[in-house]
Amino acid sequence: MIGHDDAWRAWRSAMAGGRMHHGWILSGREGLGKASFARAAAAELVAEPGVPQPAFEMHPDLYVLRPLPANDDEVKKRDDGKPYVTKRNISVDQIREIGRRLNTRPTLGARRAVIVDCGDQLEKGAVNALLKMLEEPPQGTFFLLVVHVLGRLLPTVRSRCQILRFHPLSDADVMRVLDAEMPQLDNETRAAALAVAGGSPGAALTFAEQGLGKLQAIYSALLGDRDGDLALRGALAGAIGARPDRERQMAAIEAARMTVVRALGQADDHARLRLVEAHAGLVSLAAVAPTYNFDSGLLMTQIGSLLASAAPTREGAR
C-alpha cells in the first residue's frame, strides 16, 4: 500500500461526503497495488461502528470477481493453496450469479461492495450484464472495478463510474517494497528488477520471483547490438528455460517492453523511432501471447528480434 496517499485521500473524502458514488474505476498500470487498495477500501466502506467484521474472505457483504481456474486440475491446485492458471476472462455467468446474490439487502450493515478484478478481463456479455447493474445499482451496493488499461472499457461503463487514478511509484518506493517483500535479493537482481519496474512494485516483484535478471542483461545488450550472428537471441532461449509457464512468458515480454521504455528516456530523435517501433511490436506480442501457445524458443527469438531491430545500425553508430 506504499505510495497511494492521494488515492486514499480521494476515497475517504468521498466516504465522508455522505453521497458516495456507487461505481468506481481504479485505473493504472498493472502491479501498482490497485487490487489490494480495492480490498482495503471495500472493507472500510462496509464496516459499521460497533458491528464485528469477519475476515475479508468470509464477509457476507464483500464480493470479489476474478477469472476462474482454467480447468478441473487448476481448481484442485487452487483448493490446495497452490499457484494455478486462470481462464482469460470473467464470464457473463459470474456476473449474473453476483446479480442474483444482490437481490437481497446487505447482511451486516447498510453497504456491500463488489470488486471486479479486473475490468479488462470481462467477456462482452459480462460487460453488458455489469452495465445494467451500474445503471440500476442494487440498494446499498458499490462497485470497484480494477482496470489496467482504461481505454479497454466501454465509454458507457466509464461514464457511470468515478475514476480513481493510480500513478507509478518512485524508484525509492519500489525499492522499499522489494526490500520488504524479498530482503534476500542480491544487489544485481534488485537493480535489474528496478530497471524494468517502471514504477510498478508488482512488476518488480514478479521479475525478481521469476529470476529474470539474466534475461534483462541480454535485453540491454540487444538494444546496443544488431546481433548479426544471432548469438544473443540464442542466449535468450536458454535464459528463460525449456518450459516456461504463461506467467513467466508474460513477465519476459513485460521486462523487454520496460527495457525499451527505459531506453526511450535516454534516446536521441534518431534512435527514438526504432525504439517506438520495437515497443509497438512488444505490445502486440503481449496481446496475442495469452491466446497462442508459443514455443518458448520461438517467443524469445521474436522478442530478441524486436530488440535487435531497435539497435543502432553501423552507419547510425558512426
From TrEMBL:
Its EC number is 2.7.7.7. Keywords: Nucleotidyltransferase, Transferase. One of its GO terms (molecular function) is DNA-directed DNA polymerase activity. One of its GO terms (biological process) is DNA-templated DNA replication. InterPro entries: DNA_Rep/Repair_Clamp_Loader (IPR050238), P-loop_NTPase (IPR027417). Pfam families: DNA_pol3_delta2. It is an enzyme of class 2 (transferase). One of its GO terms (cellular component) is DNA polymerase III complex. This is DNA polymerase-3 subunit delta.
